[in-house]
Amino acid sequence: MKRFDELRDLVMSLEADFQKFYDKKNQAAGTRVRKGMQDLKNLSQIIRVEVQDIKNQE
């Protein structure tokens, strides 16, 4: 569940930058959104591997 908490925190931390980018057209916020989405992708991959490893141990 620790990884889920990390995932949720990451998504929530991006909310303000999403609003700044889409509502106010703030380009710097767009860069932060892209970086955050890359981090989200990487964390998702880590979680996928962990789940698969646990599943294979059973």
Give a brief rundown of this model:
The protein has 58 residues and is mainly α.
Oligomeric grouping of the chains? single chain
Radius of gyration: 15 Å
Alpha-beta classification: mainly alpha
| pLDDT averaged over residues | 96
User: Major β-sheet, in short?
Assistant: none
CA(first)-CA(last) distance: 18 Å
Which percent band covers the strand fraction?
Answer: under 5%
Q: Which term fits the overall shape?
A: elongated
SS field, number of helical segments: 2
Low-confidence stretches: none
The domain tally reads 1
How do the helices and strands follow one another from N- to C-terminus? Answer: HH
Number of strands: 0
The helical percent reads over 70%
List keywords for this structure.
elongated; single chain; mainly alpha; 58 residues
List the helices and strands and how they pair.
Elements: H1 2-24, H2 27-57
Helix pairs in contact: 1-2
How would you characterize the overall build of this protein?
This protein is mainly alpha-helical and about 60 residues long. The protein has one domain. Helices cover about 95% and strands about 0% of the residues. The protein contains two helices and no strands. The chain has helices at about 1-25, 25-55. α1 packs antiparallel against α2 (about 25-55). The longest helix has about 30 residues, at about 25-55. The chain is elongated. It starts with a helix and ends with a helix. The mean pLDDT is about 95.
